[in-house]
Amino acid sequence: MLNCENYDKPVSFFYNQSGKNITSDWSRRDYVVVALGLTVCLIVILSNLLVIAAIIKNRRLHFPIYYLLGNMAAADLFAGVSYLNLLFHTGPYTIGLTQHQWFVRGALVDMSLTASVANLLAVAVERHQTIFTMQLHSTMTKRRVVLLILGIWAVAVFMGLVPTMGWNCVCDLTTCSTTVPLYQRSFLVFWAVLNLLMFFFMVAMYARIFVYVRRRCRGRPSLDADQLNYETVISLMKTVAIVLGAFVFCWTPGLVILLLDGLDCKSCQVLQYEKYCLALAECNSLVNPIIYSYRDEDMRKTFKQILCFLCRKTCDQQGEPSTIELSRNGDHTKSKRSSIRRPLFSSSSATHG
User: Fold this and answer.
1) PANTHER family from the entry (predicted)?
2) Are 120 and 247 in contact (CB under 8 A)?
3) How far apart are CA 286 and CA 288, in angstroms?
4) Rounded distance, CA 181 to CA 303, Å?
5) Which of 82, 168, 253, 319 is spaced 20 to 30 A from 143 at the CA atom?
């Protein structure tokens, strides 16, 4: 019969059992890690807020693919918050955690990963549907997109709570992992294999799409009535593929470490590489806004407009002279307030409204 008296044990007890040592003393390295981590987390949160704001603001981006990319930004934003919480509950802080606090810390990270993977899978299916019909955007209704996004987060919450609901080693210390001392090794194997299979499936799907596109573009005339739409479809496809590639690159090392730990590989020295893999995974949430800025012209322009608006508003609040505009008829100058109230995206709205 399993011994469940361990429910009253502190987190440090499980760390000592697994061989993952923690100390109450702060080293210079701990301070550097926390400082760098805080900086990255704040940049992740602000940059992904910018992506979400751009998608809300620009009506050219009000399509299913951009809603899903916006949800991807929301997952990255959530990842930034979960990593921020992790920084304040790691290192010497870990000793003072209760089991409940420790499981919440792990659940937040698990949820962010699951939300990102599920969202990337939804994007892959959406792109597969549109590319094979050579459409720029899916015919999916907004209601279905909302339900899909809600389903993604429901799956993320469930997967994050699985260890808390019983798939842990609190009652059986012999099954505890090394990198995540309160998780069972079998859960790490399940978690790593599931995500790696999802990576493989999505990469295979995009490879099939690119093969199809390459075959279709053979023999196309250089000047075609649908050439502009065709090039836009391919450009957006490449952007999404780069996002997937960056995600796979950043998360695969960490998942491999978890898989090796779950398989109880004694000679793999998983603790030596664990923190580097976690840092690489954290950087992924910072990469996507950079990809959007580089690849998507509409989103890049909207970023600039939002940032210029915020800078102008900040300058006005600090007492900068108001902007003076002269009318064509030589009328009196307009006030600063009327200048601020002008539509920021008037040219865009007039073109696409």
Assistant:
1) G-PROTEIN COUPLED RECEPTOR
2) yes
3) 6
4) 42
5) 82
DSSP letter (8 states) at residue 94: G
Residues 200-253 have pLDDT tens digits of: 998 888 888 888 777 776 655 454 545 666 676 777 778 888 888 888 999 999
- Is residue 330 in some structural domain? no
Host domain of residue 54: 14-319+335-345
Tens-digit pLDDT profile for residues 101-147: 899 999 999 999 999 999 988 888 888 777 777 666 667 788 888 99
Distance separating alpha carbons of residues 88 and 193, to the nearest angstrom: 29
Predicted local distance difference test score (pLDDT) of residue 322: 39
- Average pLDDT (148-169) is 92
CB 148 within 8 A of CB 182: no
Q: What is the secondary structure of 204-266 as a DSSP string?
A: HHHHHHHHHHHHHHTT--SS-TTHHHHHHHHHHHHHHHHHHHHHHHHHHHHHHHHHHHHTT-T
pLDDT at 207: 85
- Answer whether residue 338 shows pLDDT above 50: no
Q: For residue 189, what is the domain's CATH number? A: 1.20.1070.10
* Cα-based distances in Å from 144 to 25, 118, 157, 215: 52, 16, 20, 32
Task: List the structure tokens of 242.
Answer: 């780069």
Helices 99-132 & 64-87 angle (0-180, nearest 10): 160
Which residues share a beta bridge with 168?
183
Residue 163 contacts residue 103 (beta carbons within 8 Å) = yes
pLDDT in tens, 51-81: 999 988 888 888 888 898 899 999 999 999 9
Please enumerate in sequence order all residues whose Cβ is within 8 A of that of 229, keeping only pairs 6 or more positions apart, or say none: 136
What confidence score (pLDDT) does residue 327 get?
Answer: 41
pLDDT (mean) for 280-302: 83
- Is 5 contained in some domain? no
Asked if residue 24 lies in contact with residue 92, where contact means CB atoms within 8 angstroms, the answer is yes
Question: How far apart (Å, rounded) are the C-alpha atoms in residues 248 and 121?
Answer: 12
Do the beta carbons of residue 41 and residue 80 sit within 8 Å? yes
| Total domains in the fold of the chain | 1
Q: Is residue 21 part of a domain?
A: yes
Give domain status of residue 208, yes or no: yes
Write down the pLDDT at residue 349.
36
